[in-house]
Amino acid sequence: MRKVLVLAPHPDDDVIGCGGSILKHVQSGNMVSVVYLTSGDIGSLTHSSDQMTTIREAEAAKAAKLLGITQTYFLRNPDGCLSFTRENIVRITTLLREFRPDVVYIPHRYDEHRDHRVTCDLAVESCLWSGSPRAQECGCQPWSVGTILCYEVGTPLREVNYVEDISAVIKEKLAAMATHESQLVYLQYTEAIEHLNRLRGITTGMGTYCECFQVLKVAEIF
């Protein structure tokens, strides 16, 4: 069994960016955990921030159950105002040293959404901290992450150097996305990701539906 950690700016970004890969990891017997940097609390025009936190965390829990995710963590940073701070780096580094993942999935650095870019920067810095002999407050046993993959959400990757065929699990991925009902009121994300994954399959020739990634560091993925 190998351990996989997904860092997601908001509930649903994990499903959109690498939901198919999560399913394949679980089917391979790997343990997958997800850390949500925010709870998407500004994602509605009709509900308060507190209400949205409750709603979106519940939706994420339903999606996690469908995907077979073992653990979910909610750091509850302000949605839309995620900051590159020492506090966030310490929190993520602590989780890295506790969970000791072999593979980490993160958003890519050139996503148009600021929270996604900040999540990428926080993740990269935290992985550096995790493997170094410093930051005692994060745990005393350093852990070096073997593989780091950047996924795409709203902004397609400029550079793709790893492709995963998710054709066999695309229906399950779309079902997990459908649990995020509060967000589907505004945008048809299920259609968007189905078309993106189909496009990636056509253009890469690697499968009918594919997820694409940028490799920052690689040891072994599956």
Domains, number:
1
Most strands sheet: 7 strands, mixed
Strand element count: 7
CATH superfamily: LmbE-like
Can you tell me the CATH class? Alpha Beta
Average pLDDT confidence is 95
**Per CATH, which architecture?**
3-Layer(aba) Sandwich
Beta-strand percent range: 15-25%
Strand order across the largest sheet:
3-2-1-4-5-7-6
Number of helices: 7
Question: What overall form do the CA principal axes indicate?
Answer: globular
- List the helices and strands in order: EHEHEHEHEEHHHE
**What is the share of helical residues?**
40-55%
Structure description:
The protein has 222 residues and is of the alpha/beta class. It has one domain: LmbE-like (Rossmann fold, 3-Layer(aba) Sandwich), CATH 3.40.50.10320. Helices cover 43% and strands 19% of the residues. It has 7 helices and 7 strands, in the order E-H-E-H-E-H-E-H-E-E-H-H-H-E. A 7-stranded mixed sheet has the order 3-2-1-4-5-7-6, with helices on both faces. Helix 2 (49-67) links the parallel strand 2 and strand 3 (71-77). Helix 2 (49-67) packs antiparallel against helix 5 (170-178). The chain starts with a strand and ends in a 5-residue tail after the last strand. The mean pLDDT is 95.
